[in-house]
Amino acid sequence: MSTLQPIIHVLQHSSDEDVVEQFFEHEPLIWIDWREDEGDIIQYFNGQLPESDQIKCEIIDIDKPRGVDIVLSSNDRKHTIPFADDRTDRDSAIRAMQEMIAPRYQIRWFMESLGNDTLAYLLLSTEQWTELENQFSKEKLEFYFQPVTNESNMFSLDMDEVFTLIETRQKARTSE
User: Fold this and answer.
1) Is 70 exposed, middle or buried (0-12, 13-18, 19+ CB in 10 A)?
2) Most CB contacts within 10 A, which of 80, 88, 116, 126?
3) Is 75 helix (H, G, I), strand (E, B) or coil?
4) DSSP 8-state symbol, 87
5) Its domain of life (predicted)?
6) What dihedral do alpha carbons 22, 6, 131, 32 form, nearest 10°?
7) Where do the H-state alpha helices sit in 52-136?
8) pLDDT recorded at residue 27
């Protein structure tokens, strides 16, 4: 079975709640809890990458209220995650990981996990995402699998924003 087959199945049958629910059991989904340690998040994504493409994660104690810097590196790049002075956060860690693995790979947020305290992500090669986009359209693919960009807010959404997004998605789904 193709790596993409379960994703194709959920996109083909996206109006069937049972199919979407079953996709939550899809093994390659990366589940991140809102309390997750940022260093662990990097390792979860590394677990989906070939060893040669994995990102090194160094946690350095610093004299700021957040207590640490996290430096990501690969053979040719180095990036310190741009956290606020007073705290680390999951959104910044996920965005930084996306930046490090681009352009070969993309992390996308499985939007059906919106509203939970644990969110689901899927990491595929850019080539695989392009194949899915060509098959289903950019709009449909991004409705279910939102690309992680430098502007992505996932865990930092307030409850009003979450409920508004859920409502907007429900309205869009009924008009499909």
Assistant:
1) buried
2) 88
3) coil
4) B
5) Bacteria
6) 50
7) 90-101, 126-136
8) 84
Structure tokens, 154 = 């996932």
DSSP letter for 55, please. Answer: P
Give, for 20, the enclosing helix (H) or strand (E): helix 17-23
Helix (H) or strand (E) holding 163: helix 159-174
Which helix (H) or strand (E) segment holds residue 118: the answer is strand 118-125
Average pLDDT for runs of 10 along the chain of length 176: 84 89 90 94 96 96 95 94 95 97 97 94 97 96 96 94 93 78
Structure tokens at 64: 């700021």
Cα angle, residue 85 at apex, residues 45 and 78 outer, rounded to 5°: 45
Q: Which two tokens stand for residue 170?
A: 């429900």
Predicted local confidence at residue 20, as pLDDT: 87
CA distance 114 to 112: 5
Neighbours of 58 (CB within 10 A): 13
Q: What residues contact residue 162 under an 8 Å CB cut-off, 6+ apart? A: 114, 115
In this structure, are residues 51 and 59 in contact, taking their beta carbons and an 8 Å threshold? no
